[in-house]
Amino acid sequence: MLPSPSTAAPLAPAPVSTAPFLAEVARELLATHGPEALADLVVIVPTRRAVVYLKNELARATPEGEALWAPRIAAMEDYMVERAGVQVEEPIALQLLLFDIFKDFDPDLQFDHFVGWGGLLLQDFSTLDQHLADTKAIFDYLAEAKALERWQLDPELKTTGLDRYFGFWGQLRKVYLRFKARLKPQHLAYPGLAYRRAVQRLRAELKDPKQPLPPLHVFVGLGGLSKAEETFIGLLRKVGRAELLFDGDPFYLEKETPNRAGQALRRYWQQWELPRDTFTYQEHLRGRPDRKSVV
């Protein structure tokens, strides 16, 4: 195991490899955990496509004639939804429910008007929850900001349309809370809400002494994690139930580099004090011949 970034020396030149990242991950899993212990693992990858490819690579890496009990392999979003214990509802059904709730606050609202911004509002709700935002503080700030804006208006310019506009911002938090309350009994959610509930359930599970520890999780090839994903992984790491493998070229991991493409990877490296071999130790970018064509 190589040292964490706080004690590591500058990165040495890395070897060049032509093996795909998932092929290396498959060999690493077999070498570290063995064919029998793999069945107890939960391996999380970024997409459903990666699930298929990793399963294929595990089959190729298994010695011929040997049986393999494959680990549970799931895409990150699918796994978070499963951990939340909900089903993600279709966007059109969510928008219809949201419209129904808005009608309670504004009976004159027309659907053809709502449909122009209802989808965007639903995305905003999802983003707030996926990043574990303090929604009360945000909605209160928006309401107060709009109240100041309204106060600055000339009283003679105020109209019914403006009253409805400013009323929208004042009712937004109530709409958000009622929207979640309507979804909860049916075990439905939108994507961001599923992420928030997955974190809440894991936190409660880890606090309960009667609950067994979760299985070991191996997070593979993730990047640009949301706050909910970072928190979920962090909670598992605190109890020793999470390992991470990143496809991070040394070019992106150099300290003091102005390269913004590796900013997230460098932050994970520092934040979690990950060993250097958590990242792919290969020169994919600088280790290959540089070919230029002049047209």
Architecture overview:
Helix content is 54%, strand content 7%. By secondary structure, it is an alpha/beta fold. A four-stranded parallel sheet has the order 2-1-5-6. β5 (217-220), α9 (227-238) and β6 form a beta-alpha-beta unit. α4 packs across α5, α6 packs antiparallel against α7 and α8 packs parallel to α9 (227-238). The model is unreliable at 1-16 (pLDDT under 50).
- Topology as a string of helices (H) and strands (E): HEHEHEHHHHEHEHEHH
Provide the CATH architecture of the largest domain.
3-Layer(aba) Sandwich
Let me know the number of strands. 6
Tally of alpha and pi helices: 11
End-to-end separation in angstroms reads 47 Å
User: How much strand?
Assistant: 5-15%
CATH topology of the largest domain: Rossmann fold
Number of domains: 2
Q: Which stretches are poorly predicted, pLDDT < 50 over at least 5 residues?
A: 1-16
Spatial order of the strands forming the largest sheet: 2-1-5-6
Main sheet, how many strands, which sense, barrel? 4 strands, parallel
Name of the top-level CATH class of the largest domain: Alpha Beta
